[in-house]
User: Fold this.
Amino acid sequence: MDDGKPVWAPHPTDGFQLGVMVDIGADTLTIEPLSHRGKTFLAPISQVFPAEDDVNKHVEDNCSLMYLNEATLLNNIRVRYSKDLIYTFVANILIAVNPYYDIPKLYALEAIKSYRGRSLGTLPPHVYAIADKAYRDMKVLQMSQSIIVSGESGAGKTENTKFVLRYLTTSYGTGQDIDERIVEANPLLEAFGNAKTVRNNNSSRFGKFVEIHFSQKNEVVGGFVSHYLLEKSRICMQSKDERNYHIFYRLCAGVSEDLRSVLHLSSPDSFRHTKAGSLKDPLLDDLGDFKRMCGAMKKIGLDDTEKLNLFRVVAGVLHLGNIDFEETGSTSGGCVLTNQSNQTLQHCAELLGLDQEDLRVSLTTRVMLTTAGGAKGTVIKVPLKVEQANNARDALAKAVYSRLFDHVVTRVNQCFPFTASSNFIGVLDIAGFEYFEHNSFEQFCINYCNEKLQQFFNERILKEEQELYQKEGLGVNEVHYVDNQDCIDLIEAKLLGILDILDEENRLPQPSDQHFAEAIHSKHKDHFRLTVPRKSKLAIHRNIRDDEGFIVRHFAGAVCYETTQFVEKNNDALHMSLESLVCESKDKFVRNLFENNFSSKDSKQKAGKLSFISVGNKFKVEHAQ
Ligand SMILES: Nc1ncnc2c1ncn2[C@@H]1O[C@H](COP(=O)(O)OP(=O)(O)OP(=O)(O)O)[C@@H](O)[C@H]1O
Assistant:
């Protein structure tokens, strides 16, 4: 940094501000801001960066900046953003900033045509340029390619994923129905898997990997969507100003009068699962969205029966939420349905094809098989307390809805089948690193996933590139980065990893969130990546007890997780009586949703008290794939 030349120095709200150095100390620099001449402040040397000669000039690729540092990089993106240039390259990585409005012609057909076959860097940065590079690489290398879209909630991941799909199907499709279907499948997936959150009115609450498959002639032949970790807690509980999945509100707003009476529907504020969240948002148009969703269903080939099946189950889940329990007052300590719930029980049973009385019994008791000396023993019916019955009801709602979501994805995949595929281009759209005031199991899983992605990035971009530079004898300064393997081990190591400790807790006769938190701390006392909430920099977390939470130092920052409900959220199992009830539904559609669920291994597991299917480990296996 030269004397008198502008530098970027820290600014409390803007990140960085321009200034000039007026004095140099041992560890600090005295800076005079250009906007407040005559006033100086001290800044740590490590946080002051040289600025470009002309800070209003911008470049299409950050690599072309004279000085590449955090401040110049941010400034370049800011200057571009102010001119509606939302995309910027960093070599073959694309940075996108959400404009929150439709920039005219940015995604028009002419733009699609112009990027076709053009090398990266010959045209302005665009998501189409990345899509085309993936296509050309696939063609030349004869290898499938993947595009990873990452960023925080509301950053624009899903929109950009859709632009990639549209680009590929428009440019390299055969102009047939299948191209349209791949694009039209999104509104249906979003109806069941997206919700309004405080950050995003259309937030995807599941991760997805969309594959566009190509023939030997490199033409689009079909698609396939895999989904990960639908946020199930939302089905029964929403945070302030957030909503349940779109479909619930759309159904209430849009169904015909006839269907409304068949499904016994009324307004969302009469259902527990929908009334708690934010009901009115001027930016949401449930009726219009219902019509658009029905249009999309038609385009991808769903007939009226299939549509009704979906709606019936959604309505069944809504009614299920309205079932309430009260104590019996008898010595057995169990509970019964409240009088007002009897009608709801009837609606719910009817819509899900269940026997009303069986449903009543299954919600209020739990069947257990005793095993004596290894032999199958007697069936015992254990009455449930009100809280346990509430949990059973919610577990059933979550199980039915998430099975329905699996079905929607499977059904969507049937819309663009392919018999032979040579290669595919995959687009991974998953939630980015999340850090809220209150963080739970969902954030833990999402951040674990991002930790794995970061490792992939470290390996693929930083390590391999630097090895290549060395091999080619280029005198490029080594870039140091923090290896996050220790953090990944902390989460996924066998036996000692947080996920395994949690599974162990779930298998205990009386699992508890407190015991789980204590076990983590006692097994990782001096782990660099793990600490107790008391040591948080934020006052709000310092009130959390050691047995109520833990802090993980992730690559992107420390996150304090509150362990309440970790044990419950990690268990995907329904208790045995509920499981068999839905598996034997009179409604073929509902029965099929739960098909393959009653394998002999599962039944054996459920015969004892240790009914448990781990959500965390399922997620771990998905990552490994
Ligand atoms: N390129 C864009 N042009 C115009 N609007 C955009 C663009 N990208 C995003 N948006 C707007 O921002 C909203 C949020 O974007 P999007 O749903 O893609 O975010 P996300 O990163 O997928 O969020 P989440 O992780 O919550 O699903 C969109 O509904 C859209 O209104």
